[in-house]
Write a structure and sequence with these properties.
The chain is an all-alpha fold. 75% of the residues lie in helices and 0% in strands.
Length: 204
C-alpha cells in the first residue's frame, strides 16, 4: 500500500465497519466484518505499543544526552583545574558533548594523565575517579538508548505491518461490495474508497 494516506484508510475502515453493522443480514458481510474488526484491533494494539516504545526511546535518548553533557562539563572542569595549577602535557582540546567518540577519547586521555600525576597535582585522584564513573555511566546510557531505539524500530515495523493488514482487508471488502452492488451503485459509492487501495478495475 505505497503512499497510503493514514487518515483516508482510517476513514474508509470506519465507514466500512459502520456499513457492516447495518447490514448483518448479507452473507459477504458476515464473512468480512470479523476480519475488518480483527484488522482494526491489531492496528490499534500496534499503535499503542509503538507509541509506548517511542516514548521510552525518547526518555533513554534524553538521559543519554544528559550524561554525556555532564561528562563534557567535568572534562572541562578538569582542564580549568589543571590550568590553575600550571600543569602541562594534559589534553587541552575543547570538545562538545554531542561528539561522543571524540569526547570519550579525550576523557580517557585525561584520566590516564591524572592517574599518572596523582602525586604532584592536587585532587588528581578525585577528578580521575569522577571521570571514570561518568565514562561507565555514559557507556551504559549509550547502550540503553541503542536498545530502546531497536525496540522502537521493531514495534514501528509491527505497526506498519498492521496498517498493511487493514489495507488488504479493505481491498478485499471493497471487491466483495463491488461484485455485490456494482461499481456505480450509490450504496457501493457511499463508502469513500481511497485510490491507494486499488484502482476501480473490474473485480473477478
Amino acid at each position: 500500500m505505497a503512499n497510503a494516506n493514514v487518515i483516508e484508510i482510517e476513514t474508509c475502515l470506519k465507514e466500512a465497519l459502520k456499513f457492516c453493522e447495518e447490514h448483518q443480514d448479507l452473507e459477504f458481510i458476515r464473512f468480512y466484518h470479523p476480519r475488518l474488526e480483527r484488522a482494526k484491533k491489531q492496528f490499534e494494539d500496534a499503535v499503542k505499543a509503538s507509541d509506548l516504545h517511542w516514548l521510552q526511546w525518547q526518555k533513554e535518548s534524553q538521559e543519554d544526552k544528559i550524561v554525556w553533557k555532564h561528562m563534557a562539563n567535568e572534562y572541562l572542569a578538569a582542564q580549568r583545574a589543571l590550568v590553575r595549577q600550571n600543569a602541562v602535557g594534559y589534553p587541552n582540546v575543547r570538545v562538545r558533548h554531542w561528539d561522543e567518540e571524540a569526547l570519550l577519547g579525550y576523557v580517557e586521555e585525561m584520566i590516564a594523565y591524572l592517574d599518572e600525576h596523582k602525586a604532584d597535582i592536587e585532587d588528581a585522584g578525585v577528578m580521575s575517579e569522577k571521570l571514570q564513573r561518568l565514562v561507565g555511566k555514559a557507556l551504559k546510557e549509550n547502550k540503553d538508548e541503542s536498545e530502546a531505539f531497536k525496540n522502537y524500530q521493531r514495534y514501528a515495523t509491527q505497526r506498519s505491518n498492521a496498517f498493511g493488514v487493514i489495507g488488504s482487508a479493505l481491498w478485499e471488502f471493497r471487491g466483495a461490495m463491488r461484485r455485490h452492488y456494482g461499481k456505480r451503485n450509490p450504496t457501493y459509492l457511499s463508502i469513500r474508497w481511497p485510490m491507494t487501495l486499488n484502482s476501480d478495475e473490474t473485480v473477478l
